[in-house]
Amino acid sequence: MIMGAAKTNPGRFFEDYTVGETIHHAVPRSVGAGERALYHALYPARHALYSSDEFARSCGLKQSPLDDIAAFHVVFGKTVPDVSLNALANLGYAEGRWLKPVYAGDTIRSTSEVIGVKQNSNGKSGVVWVRTKGHNQRDEVVIDYVRWAMVRKRDLDAPAPEVVIPELKPALAAEDLVVPEGLRFDEYDFTLAGEAHRWGDYEIGETIDHVDGVTVEEAEHMMATRLWQNTAKVHFDVSSRPDGRRLIYGGHVISMARTLSFNGLANAQMVVGLNGGAHANPCFSGDTIRAWSEVLDKAETGVPGVGAIRLRLVATKGGAPFMLKGEDGKYLPDVMLDLDYWALMPM
Amino acid sequence: MIMGAAKTNPGRFFEDYTVGETIHHAVPRSVGAGERALYHALYPARHALYSSDEFARSCGLKQSPLDDIAAFHVVFGKTVPDVSLNALANLGYAEGRWLKPVYAGDTIRSTSEVIGVKQNSNGKSGVVWVRTKGHNQRDEVVIDYVRWAMVRKRDLDAPAPEVVIPELKPALAAEDLVVPEGLRFDEYDFTLAGEAHRWGDYEIGETIDHVDGVTVEEAEHMMATRLWQNTAKVHFDVSSRPDGRRLIYGGHVISMARTLSFNGLANAQMVVGLNGGAHANPCFSGDTIRAWSEVLDKAETGVPGVGAIRLRLVATKGGAPFMLKGEDGKYLPDVMLDLDYWALMPM
Amino acid sequence: MIMGAAKTNPGRFFEDYTVGETIHHAVPRSVGAGERALYHALYPARHALYSSDEFARSCGLKQSPLDDIAAFHVVFGKTVPDVSLNALANLGYAEGRWLKPVYAGDTIRSTSEVIGVKQNSNGKSGVVWVRTKGHNQRDEVVIDYVRWAMVRKRDLDAPAPEVVIPELKPALAAEDLVVPEGLRFDEYDFTLAGEAHRWGDYEIGETIDHVDGVTVEEAEHMMATRLWQNTAKVHFDVSSRPDGRRLIYGGHVISMARTLSFNGLANAQMVVGLNGGAHANPCFSGDTIRAWSEVLDKAETGVPGVGAIRLRLVATKGGAPFMLKGEDGKYLPDVMLDLDYWALMPM
């Protein structure tokens, strides 16, 4: 018997990353009507621009794009076999921008440039920063974001690389945001969209409890995570963690929270910027996800009638809304997600 | 911290309904190949006209429409945030008609006219009747039905409105039914359809046990219910009921029973009329749904070769087939659904 | 009350099969973007030719076909109401060939020719061999395979038919395989495909542990099995087996194992031949499926650059990889599937 173990992908270890290198991630993916329907089956998605082709056309787009968070999942999923297989923790996101809507029929692939490395003092692992881009079949960049993760070393004796820590913006400025070509809200139908509140109705500092909750199931999060071709085994294999539980992909919590936020933010239609995000505590099957938002900032976009709103989106599995951190500055145990993003809204 | 609770939708209460008013429900929805596939994944759907575009074309349609019950769910789902959020019970349906098939690419929105109100003697709630219409992107009405529900009052001191109780037909007559334009069964292939029984082979009073059973799961009913953008929290959130169980959307039971009825009614292809329906007892995850039917009536449609058959469709979670009510006239505890509908069949 | 039990399909019994007869199976099915997305949601499917329309075009096809195993499930599912309802066991497959890719918009129907019968010595059942063909809307055969099953007799006194045992090839030869028209791998992008190993890199006798595992859920296998319109009640109804467990459709295990085999066989793109297969032990919800492969043979196809590789694909629910049978020659209890197939690979 000839063992072919060498043919399987062991993933990259810390010492396999070189600053400046570009990783071309495998398995491009065509998306379409199926992904759209599944997104509506897996999440309580109701933002009208993604639900109705007619509504999208009334906003100047050719049809409903794939939900922006779904597009992010597709781009992210491709990076997992290269970046995450030996990751100990996903530490953060920054400078995420949605540059082009993804439409049915588009084929998405991802690349990541290594932009920072820093070995940990324990010598067993290190932090790797990558700038990931999603590209469509016309080689246009559709999404661009920075992510950093703690990655194990394979060989503890491998020398520590020169420390490179990228300078990252704590938040994108309004001028960094890209409004999709043609987008306009001058014929926006607030009745069909579901709420009357426009950009001018939100105040910085305002908080919104999105009220509804969804109890999550194993079959759902696995279907969602597979749909984005995210192969991290902790999501699928009960034997991969000592507690025998499947860890739910953090992106599942993001999608659930974002879609729940419809109730109070129905007009925060398009996600265009990701300033940062923390997966504060794990999510497991049986947890009931709730969400609340806080308005962090507001800005004009330069496109008449299209405002930008910066939101903190928090997903919890219990506890009172609007509670985030304890006196020790740490996230409360019921907080699963703290996301900071920009969305576009009719002014 | 500024609380934005006022931005979320509290739903309508009994005193918010005025007879004659039309409610424009939010979030239009485009449907397509994804909804079709999901319907086949969530239910044992086999009626050939909906499974095969070629079969649909041989029946004079341009392709397979979205399953009629799925189209109903889409129209119904849009009404939930306005009509059902504070409903204590969904009491009945009447005069439901399918007027146009829904095809891939169509965008559906819903409106409801308030046609009746009657405050309950306890002063805490009342019954509201609405006539709901589903419209496609050409503003054609695709579905039209009456539904009534018991709705809570927000303000117990609000005065009781003048009682208006609409006159509703106990059942649609054959001349009320609309046969889709172009439908013909003269080249109908009974072998491909799965059964040889035609309209003439069914007798009024005949009962059919559909034999098969399906044990239902939380992930399935939640995916189905979300797919139709039905947001009623009892279906999703274990904390919304004292018993900690998620109530399964009654429409999930309708779809399961209707698709199970293929076995014995494979040629009852298109659903065109809904005479009435009762969700007799709740359905929960783990229940095994079975179905039986009774032929209530038969009629000619005026279209050569196309017969109409009026069927009682009963879904149970145990017990013997053909048992419906006890000696007290109440539904037996194992009966979950008693639906009365018209379907079209080759003569 | 008039009982309509005669209207439901009781399935065929052993004495209902006559050698030479062709059964036209019911319910043709159109497939499309929804089935494709669901296949990616239900299985960790990553073979690039099925994931990316652009990749498929670079290989000479017009777009990504439906996954070959999914196409097989569609063809197989149609045969279940006729062949499997009264089957006691699915005994084997042989001479399976994929003759045409199935594309979005195609409509598939199935026929089966009875090619063998042999009553068992107990007089209560017999073995039936059928050659099943899947046809598209242009009446082209897309899949062709032989399957045999043990089927109950309805009438134990029915006379035993003349024994006919078809001669079946233990394995297809390379010249039996059909390379899809236009397929070419001369511009094959190994980076996008996910692995660098080409046909020449695999040795006969080589074994590959595919490493990853997936714990399966009731909702998933039922959705998958329904999607292929496979109605065998043991998959859906907890009351259909004495142990109250739902038996998972063997095809679900095949799809899970085949998609897991991406890790090590990412370039075994198209499945073109099925030499044989055994569902060695049942699979239930909660089992964690793993897979390993063995290279059984290699051959040239006559198409420049396109090699054929014959693989044994084994799915397990525990135990060490590469263990198949005990000293008694029987499958080990953890082995669920032993499949023997041909795939096409860039040379």
UniProtKB/TrEMBL annotation, chains A, B, C:
Gene3D superfamilies: Hotdog Thioesterase. Pfam families: MC_hydratase (PF19315). Transmembrane segments: none annotated. One of its GO terms (molecular function) is lyase activity. This is Uncharacterized protein. It comes from Roseovarius nubinhibens (strain ATCC BAA-591 / DSM 15170 / ISM).
